[in-house]
Design a protein that fits this description.
Helix content is 44%, strand content 18%. By secondary structure, the protein is an alpha/beta fold. Strands 3-2-1-4-5 form a 5-stranded mixed beta sheet, with helices on both faces. Bound molecules: 5'-O-[(R)-(carboxyoxy)(hydroxy)phosphoryl]adenosine and zinc ion (ZN).
């Protein structure tokens, strides 16, 4: 069974061929260098670049897997959430392929894709808790069984990746800020103090207060004509952000009898978060902890193909009437 999966929800055009859970090819055309000029993703530019790239990326994914269109059994595509213009390009390409090849179309939820990327690292056992951390999402998702999704808590303001990107901009660093802050934080040490957040639902998150605190700290140092030690600020921000993620995860672990903890989303590439998540085995020795390989934390189509396998098992298909959905709750798959 060969699935051709397409992902275009943000600024990466990606196509992957998956055969029975094995990744045959995974091609990613990243637009990051172009969006860097704007300090973030410029949606209109992203859509246009997806249009330019999509056919080449499909061809390369087929070539790398040494397959042709006739070898494909299913077309999977990210339906949402994401930038609507970007999603439409992948969706139109997927519909055209499924229709012309007369094979089923599988619409996949982007975050469900991020979660199933963990199959590249080990076996998912249930109940499973996923800490989803990306540029658009920060949430704790409980899966009591395969393909059951319940959001236990989520960010009340910025997503953690968004906070990384915005704090990096405040510090005069380039886009995307996550990897840059991650790198600088390793060179920093304890010095600056940033406040903790308290929220009504202990499983919810908040990062805008942390972002404002960084801004205030930068202004305070400027006022006092003290040079800003950006490595130490990166360190303080990274510790605060990852502490909050771990603290909430532990509350959920203590409540739901979880067997597997799966890290998901672009911020899962963060070195300190990976370290802290892996350390949870000291406190929870029986917990199966999964962290995707770095390449699979970023947006790419292999995760969409892996998730599509589960959609197919659950008989969830789309037709030419379906459309991209920019805000798509995970409970609606
Ligand atoms: O999942 P993703 O590729 O796109 C979305 O679905 O949003 O996540 C992108 C986010 C960006 O905010 C980026 O700064 C962040 O992931 N990111 C990181 C790291 N690598 C990527 N954040 C912290 N540390 C990293 N090493
Ligand atoms: Zn993503």
């Amino acid at each position: 069974m060969i699935i051709c999966a397409i992902e275009s929800s943000c600024d990466e055009t990606s196509v992957s061929l998956i055969e029975n859970g094995k990744v045959l090819s995974n091609v990613v055309a990243s637009q990051i260098e172009i969006h860097k000029e704007y300090g973030g993703v410029f949606p209109e530019v992203a859509s246009r670049l997806h249009v330019e790239n999509i056919n080449f990326v499909i061809k390369e994914a087929l070539d790398k897997a040494d397959k042709g269109f006739d070898d494909l059994d299913y077309i999977a595509v990210t339906q949402g959430p994401g930038l609507i213009g970007s999603l439409h390009i992948g969706m139109m390409a997927a519909k055209a392929l499924a229709f012309s090849l007369d094979i089923p179309l599988v619409p996949v939820h982007h975050i469900i894709g991020h979660i199933y990327a963990n199959e590249l690292s080990g076996t998912l056992t249930y109940p499973l808790l996923s800490l989803v951390v990306s540029g658009g999402h920060t949430e704790l998702v409980l899966m009591k069984d395969d393909f059951e999704f319940e959001v236990l808590g989520q960010t009340q303001d910025d997503a953690v990746g968004e906070a990384y990107d915005k704090v990096a901009r405040q510090m005069g660093l380039s886009y995307p800020g996550g990897p840059v802050i991650d790198r600088l934080a390793k060179l920093g040490e304890k010095g600056y103090i940033l406040p903790k957040v308290k929220l009504e639902n202990p499983l919810d998150f908040s990062f805008s207060g942390l972002k404002s605190a960084v801004r205030q700290l930068i202004l305070r140092e400027e006022r006092n004509e003290r040079p800003l030690i950006i490595e130490n600020l990166a360190y303080a921000f990274q510790e605060s952000a990852t502490d909050q993620l771990i603290e909430k995860t532990k509350i959920a672990l203590n409540t739901y009898g979880v067997k597997t903890l799966a890290l998901a989303g672009g911020v899962a590439a963060n070195s300190r978060l990976r370290e802290k998540v892996n350390h949870l085995n000291d406190e929870y020795p029986d917990l199966n902890i999964l962290v995707p390989p770095i390449w699979a934390c970023m947006d790419q189509a292999a995760m969409i193909g892996l998730a599509a396998t589960h959609y197919i098992e659950h008989n969830i298909f789309g037709d030419c009437e379906i459309s991209a959905v920019s805000n798509k709750p995970i409970e609606t798959y």
